[in-house]
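Troubleshooting log. The previous structure file for this entry was overwritten by mistake, so regenerating from the original sequence record. Sequence copied from the archived sheet and checked twice against the printout by T.R.
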Amino acid sequence: MKSSVLLLSILLIIGGILSSCDEPLPPRDDPTVVFQGKIEPEFALLSSTNALLVILKVKNVFDESLQGIALLTGNVEIAWAPFPDIRKIATLGPGNLIHARKYDVRTGLLTIDPGDSIVFLYSWNIMAESERQMRAEIFTYRTDSGCPLRKIADMETFIVRAQVRVYDKRSPANFGDTMFSFCHVDTYVDQRSCPIPRTEPPCGAR
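Regenerated output below.
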């Protein structure tokens, strides 16, 4: 009798375990917003570069790793603050990605661990021939008092905004408007001939 009761108890326990295995797992916490974006503009004046650099950092703020085939598309907008209709709009693609710790270029598989960031770079070549009209509308130049070989513009302020889609099935990473002011310099002059110009207010020779 005792053995029958014991056998029945064991069978009931096993049955409970098996039935619990068939129960669906609790729904996964999968929020819509998993990315945090940050814009870091910088004016670069070098022998090979005369450009406004827009660095875009996309951080995984979810508490789990994100993984999938990367889309890596988006856009950057640089608007002149006094007249925002005068603006530069550029598309972003995989070629703008400059840092990703776990990205397989061959397969396109991208993994972003919690707290990790991927970084994009867009370079607006202000001195390009195609930018002549926009350059003339925005910048007013004067000869740099510290170097007659170059001209420096009055300070101008820009509004920089961007949007990036990292994965197809995730919401895009949005970046709040970032204000950036600088004084554009029309040409690079070797510092052996002229001092390095100050491109943030007060602008001019250091």
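The helical segments are 2-21, 132-138. Archived copy saved in two places this time.
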